[in-house]
Amino acid sequence: MIGTTARAKRPGGQAFLTMALAAGGLHLLVFLAVTSARIGYRYELEWTEGSILVQVRQMMLGLPIYRAPAPEYVPYVYTPLYFYLGAAASAFGGGFLPLRLISLLSTLAGIALAYRWIRADTGRPAAAFLAAGLFAASFRPTGFWFDLARVDCLCLLLLLLGLRALSLNPRPLTAIAAALAFTLAFQTKQTSIAVIVAMLPYAVLKGLFRRGDGRIHQGKSFLAFFLLGTVLGVGGSIWFLGHIGRGWYGYYVLKVSSGHGAYPGVWLTFWTKDLIGQFGLALALAGFGLWRIFRAEGRYSDRGWFRACGSAGMIGSAWITRTHVGSWDNVLLPAFAWLALMAGWGVAETLPWRGWRGPLLGTLFLIQFAHLGYNPRSQIPDAADRAEGDALVRYISGIEGTVWVPDHEYLAEWAGKPTYANRMPMEDLRRGQGGGPGKAMEDSLRTLLRRKVFSALLLDTPDWSAAGFLPGETGEWYALADSLPLHGRAFFPKTGVKSRPLYLYRPIE
Questions:
Q1: Last residue of a domain, one of 362, 377, 392
Q2: Which of 72-76, 88-92, 262-266, 436-440 has the lowest mean pLDDT?
Q3: I need a labelling partner for 283 at 20 to 30 A (CA). Which of 69, 154, 248, 425 fits?
């Protein structure tokens, strides 16, 4: 009877596992459906995509990506790899599609890597699929970023590739591969340096404390190649890009980007609201799996140290970046992707689900996936969005003279007007205390406004003074003249700051 009772419980555990797998699969399918439906949308899905597009266009015109800030152009403070790839991809077609494809393909590759990694490590396809499902389910809490024309998803993929290479056998080839991936990640988004630094203790442990026939020598070679490759890769690329950029690369990427202030209180809410509030089950499984590894393999566990250092780097980099003024949900991408992997390892420690495990863990997974759910229609532009975008471009084209659309300058380009700097990098410059070059740019902008070079300013706010990048005297030269008749909820970005150009300012006669 005891054996019969045990056997009777197994189908229940399997049923709950099947439901959890189905919920993860549903998130994957919905994510694919949403991204497929909107990737070709002609206008912004998020309000800074347009400025990324204009920056790529600058490169395609043969202009340097980093140069002195001016009212006509201020670059982002990001490192340049995504923009180089975007310019190469855009040679085969313009608009947002090539840039979004880079992000979407990076995301799909990251999800596939997570699945294969967990399956190879644990031999548990169910754990691997749940990790992939959690990765896909982070689409909403990371700002619906997986397919946007932004740098983050490419950076995330490169970080995961570097970590995967670092987790393999300690050979010079894997060390070089890890160093190369981390270098490319840094040159996509410089916050990657936190992950690189966090992995150094693990590289030392792997290189110096592995035992076995010939492995201590091999481990030392691994450590030497990794350290040398990382220092030469990151340091050499900084030197090279700084040299060809005539100092402007370092000015934006290092000086301005490091000068941003911090949000008070985010040090705590990152853990309570972002991690526990959004990914609580994944966080619990990550901790459980890490505890089991160290308990089974001891304090010098190779796998334990790898996961601990990886957690410090991926979660720590998100934590640090989350506190910066101007950060958004996208900075959580490395933390949630890593927690999905860690949860997969943790799930593998709980399988097979028998007895109480099936109902408990299955219910928790269903709650977790339900909590991360969203209405997919809210993320897909419709015919009204397209119609209003087309009408707005025609409206701008019909304005005689130069029109500055500081929040969406790509619209001016599509209307046949010259483009001027976007608000976001201008605010980055001000927050980062851009020094003399930043002051010179503000003086030049003040001169253009005073001389009324712009026939119109098209802003997202009826109060120009709320736009912190405009000089304090702007109200002496420009006044609100009209409000555009955009209808209802049409033409708002689907994620990020929900704003659209509505208010027309004209020069005061």
A1: 377
A2: 262-266
A3: 154
